[in-house]
Amino acid sequence: MTIKAVTPRVVAPPARLGMGVSVYPSATAMVWPGEGHTHEAVAVPGVRLAPGDVLAQVELATVCGSDIHTVLGHRQAPAPLVLGHEQVGRVIALGRGGAKTTDGHRVELGERVVWSVAVPCGRCARCRRGLPQRCSNLQKYGHERMRRGWELSGGFATHAHILDGTPLVRVPEDIPAVVLAPASCATATVAAAVEAAEAIVPLDGALVLIAGAGMMGLTAAAMATDAGARVVVSDPIPQRREAALAFGAVGVADPSPGADHATSLPTVLAKAGGRGAAPVAALELSGNPAAVRTLLDGLDIGGVLVLVGSVSPGPDLAVAPEQLVRRLLTIRGVHNYAPRHLEQAVRFLASAWQRYPFAEQVGETFPLAEVDRALASAAYPRVAVRP
Predict the structure, then answer these.
(1) Cα 192 to the chain's mean position, in Å?
(2) How far apart are CA 212 and CA 221, in angstroms?
(3) Is residue 14 very low, low, confident or very high in pLDDT (cuts 50, 70, 90)?
């Protein structure tokens, strides 16, 4: 599928209906009809932009693990659905009154941007409490049923209809799209997790244990290293452990029951922090229940466990209140992220993408029409879809 650069044509309807924008050739969305079905290409010749809305031409989208879990039936999602929520694009049209980025900059046509996975209402009690990522009226790109008026609601499309209230961040022109696209999910979520840990214990000089060396785990290793931490990463896959070393980890461990003594977690932690060393912060990014138990049991006095990967139903975690009290432990959960975390993600990538091999983690790029092949590819932390 080859998409030509286009100039949108603005149609002037009654003000109460918003601003109509027609695109030629028509915008195309790859629509997932439901479990057991392949994607279908749907033409979207025009959109109606409400005040504050933005129309962006998608430069590149990356496939998140949750996209794969959806098509495999491991998580429930409404269909038909335009998947994809990690992407970078360029602004080609604005609704009446324009839009602003999170830092107050008025968005201009042609600017390169990333946008949040979540659209908060800004009015409910949770938004007012500073939890827009868990807004009572939350809408999420790549997660909502395709509907009339918001057909371009996910990243697996030539264009994205960005709703008013969506946190938008400008991105530099010199950073590769494969580096920037994950900012909207993986990188920003890790920024929220690192902030949650740092709110309890300073990371500078601390021993930090990370479970999982997928895209989020690698990003967390680099962020925590930049914060001054000594990072140990635990993952059962040798190639992922090797990648973690390139992202700043001082040690990597194999959590498998039969792991060689030299790669066992106690051995690696002792080598990284000294005899009897225990992490003061642990980030669980794998979603493995056994990893949650291991991290909690291994924390030092006053330590903090940040749970990120446990987004699907699983076994209960037995926690003895006496242990929480005597060991002064903190357990925190992170789901989605606030607008400031997307800003932090972009700043981090701008400073770190040449020091850490982020671009190499996107192993293959597929044409938009081959999104099903992209979703079936599991050989890399990320694969990409390019319109």
Answers:
(1) 11
(2) 10
(3) very low
Of 283, 338, 330, 387, nearest to 118 by C-alpha is: 338
DSSP label at residue 218: H
Q: Which residues, other chains included, contact 209 with Cβ-Cβ below 8 Å and sequence gap of 6+?
A: 231, 232, 233, 234, 269, 279, 281, 282, 283, 295, 298
CB 91 within 8 A of CB 170: no
pLDDT score of 169 more than 60: yes
Distance (Å, whole) CA 79 – CA 34: 5
Provide the pLDDT confidence category of residue 15 given band limits of 50, 70 and 90. very low
- Strands of the chain (E only): list them: 9-11, 19-31, 40-49, 54-62, 86-94, 112-115, 118-119, 139-140, 159-162, 168-170, 207-211, 230-234, 251-253, 281-284, 304-307, 330-333, 362-367, 382-386
**pLDDT per residue as tens digits for the range 205-249:** 999 999 999 999 999 999 999 999 999 999 999 999 999 999 999
Three-state DSSP state, 192? helix
Q: Are 90 and 158 in contact (CB under 8 A)?
A: no
All structural domains of the chain, each given as residue ranges with its CATH number in brackets, are 9-176+353-386 (3.90.180.10), 187-333 (3.40.50.720)
Q: In DSSP terms, which residues pair with 332 in a beta bridge?
A: 306
pLDDT value at residue 25: 86
- Maximum Cα interatomic distance, the chain, rounded to a whole number of Å: 73
Question: What is the spatial distance between Cα 241 and Cα 332, in angstroms, rounded to a whole number?
Answer: 25
Residue appearing with tokens 């309807």: 13
The C-alpha atoms of residue 276 and residue 130 are separated, in whole angstroms, by 39
Q: Are 64 and 380 in contact (CB under 8 A)?
A: no
27-62 pLDDT, tens digit per residue, is: 999 999 999 899 999 999 999 999 999 999 999 999
CA terminus-to-terminus distance, the chain = 7
Q: What is the pLDDT, as a whole number, of residue 314?
A: 81
| pLDDT one-digit tens code per residue, 271-309 | 998 777 899 999 999 989 999 999 999 999 999 999 998
- State whether the Cα torsion 233-85-339-333 is positive or negative: negative
Print burial letters for 268-284: b (CB count within 10 Å at least 16), e (below 16). Answer: bbeebbeeebbbbbbbb
